[in-house]
Every structure is written in C-alpha cells, then in structure tokens.
Write a structure and sequence with these properties.
This protein is of the alpha/beta class and 189 residues long. It is built from 6 helices and 7 strands; from the N terminus they run H-E-E-E-H-E-H-E-H-E-E-H-H. It is elongated, with a radius of gyration of 23 Å.
C-alpha cells in the first residue's frame, strides 16, 4: 500500500513538473509577443534628425515627385514590391495611418518592370497614391529589406525610418517623431 502511494505521489510530482515547464515556456512566448517592438532601423543610411536631400522620381503615370527636403506636407514613404506578401498585407495599415496622421503617402520601389508595378498598384487599389520607381531613393535611405518606411517632416528632416512588418511598426515611426526618441530601442536604453 505504501509503495502504491509513493508511485502515485511521484507520478503527481512528474505531472506538476511538466505543467511548470509548459507554463514557463508560455510565459516566454507571451513575453516575446507583447514586448514593445518598433521599426527595426538599419545602421546604414541617414540618421533620424538629419536634413534630407531631395530626390526627384517619376511615378507610374510619369508625374515627377520630389521626395525629401522641405515640402508642404509630412511624408510617409513606404518601399514595397509586388512579390512581397508582407508588403501587400501592410497596405491597409499604411493608408489608415497616413489618413489618421494627415501624412502624404508615397509608395516606392526600385523595381524595373513598370508594367508589373502598374498591375500590382491596380490590383491592390493604389491608383490614387504616388507610386515611384527609383533606385536612387532606396539607396539614399539605406533600404535593404522590404517593407521599409521613411517618415520625412515638412521641414525636410528625417523623422523616422526602418523595416516595418506591422501597423505597430509603422506607428512606432510616428511615436518616435512625437517623443523625439529615434528608436524604441533608444528609449529603453
């Protein structure tokens, strides 16, 4: 009888040990999910707070646009690609954020196949926004991965930039501008 109780107790201790390990794992997963994460800013390219140089680029309709430098509006430039599924998923959030924050929204790519970009813009409803193709623009801001966003103030000063994979990342650019802290990582440091 005592042996049976010992076995039951050891089984119970084993089950409790597994439950604690499972809970510890879930706490780690939850910590990663709710940890504040802003747009990942690359180390190359212009720094937040620097005055940007103007770059002239034509949109898909052939209209010239001046990006960077002083302008009438604060501008959000979102670098995208027709082959990037994350870019496509981020488009509604970018449109919504630009409307809520009264930002001029410009889509950009360094792609060469203008017909493919026109088809993509038509498929996802970007006809009313400027969509420029410019390698020089991407190189100027250090774009290495997509989707990538650049926030430029009306005064021409770079307010934020970085790799953005969610609405929260896009919003972090605006928040960094409001708080005067270049990145969320700098804020916590």
């Amino acid at each position: 009888m005592a042996l049976a109780l010992d076995i039951v107790l050891w089984v119970f201790v084993g089950v409790l040990t597994l439950a604690v390990l499972a809970l510890a794992r879930q706490v780690g997963v939850l910590n990663q999910r709710v940890a504040p994460a802003g747009a990942l800013m690359p180390t190359t390219g212009p720094k937040v707070g620097e005055l940007t140089e103007a770059v002239e680029a034509d949109d898909l309709a052939g209209t010239a646009h001046r990006l960077g430098g002083p302008s009438p509006d604060d501008t959000l430039v979102l670098f995208i690609s027709p082959t990037c599924p994350m870019c496509k998923a981020l488009l509604p959030a970018a449109r919504s954020l630009a409307a809520a924050e009264s930002l001029r929204l410009v889509f950009a790519s360094d792609g060469f196949d203008a017909a493919r970009h026109r088809a993509f813009a038509s498929d996802v409803g970007l006809e009313r926004f400027p969509y420029v193709l410019s390698q020089a623009l991407g190189m100027r801001y250090g774009v290495s991965r997509l989707p990538f966003a650049v926030l430029i103030g009306a005064d021409g000063v770079l307010r934020g930039r970085g790799l953005v994979n969610s609405r929260e990342h896009l919003e972090s650019l605006v928040e960094s501008w409001r708080t005067g802290v270049a990145t969320l990582q700098d804020y916590f440091a």
